[in-house]
């Protein structure tokens, strides 16, 4: 893939640190440092970075849908970094709602995101289980 434009594309970082049910989902201590490091990395790689903190299940989907609509036609690549509690195939919103990874990636697939058709889409999930 040719990745030469500046900015390369958008890197969306979603970090859920605190949750409504603290007994079930303990606070993800120090995850803010991961966000700082990810932001520095992707800015150094010439990405426009969008950060979102403590989002419910529906808000996670809305953030990704919103960022999809803001993609410039000339984006070379898309990156999503999602840090939260999770299960085998899902991440949790701060409200305890599950968001299947397949639903997240489907937002940016060839049919749902024509701006990225034929271009790389990277999804990084760091999920405490």
UniProtKB/TrEMBL annotation:
Alphabetical list of InterPro entries matching this protein: Caspase-like_dom_sf (IPR029030), Pept_C14 (IPR002398), Pept_C14_caspase (IPR011600), Pept_C14_p20 (IPR001309), Pept_C14A (IPR015917)
GO molecular function: cysteine-type endopeptidase activity
GO biological process: proteolysis
Pfam families noted in UniProt: Peptidase_C14
SUPFAM superfamilies: Caspase-like
Gene3D superfamilies cross-referenced by the UniProt entry: 3.40.50.1460
Domain Caspase family p20 per the UniProt entry, residue ranges: 7-129
Family: Belongs to the peptidase C14A family.
Protein name listed in UniProt: Caspase family p20 domain-containing protein
Species: Capitella teleta (Polychaete worm)
């Amino acid at each position: 893939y040719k990745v030469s434009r500046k900015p390369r594309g958008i890197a969306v970082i979603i970090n859920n640190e605190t949750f409504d049910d603290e007994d079930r989902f303990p606070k993800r201590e120090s995850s803010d440092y991961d966000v700082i490091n990810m932001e520095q990395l992707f800015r150094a790689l010439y990405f426009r970075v969008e950060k979102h903190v403590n989002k419910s299940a529906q808000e996670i989907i809305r953030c990704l849908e919103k960022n999809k609509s803001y993609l410039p036609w000339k984006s070379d690549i898309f990156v999503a970094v999602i840090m939260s509690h999770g299960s085998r195939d899902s991440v949790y919103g701060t409200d305890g709602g599950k968001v299947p990874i397949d639903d997240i990636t489907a937002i940016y697939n060839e049919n749902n995101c024509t701006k990225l058709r034929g271009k790389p889409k990277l999804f990084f999930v760091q999920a405490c289980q």
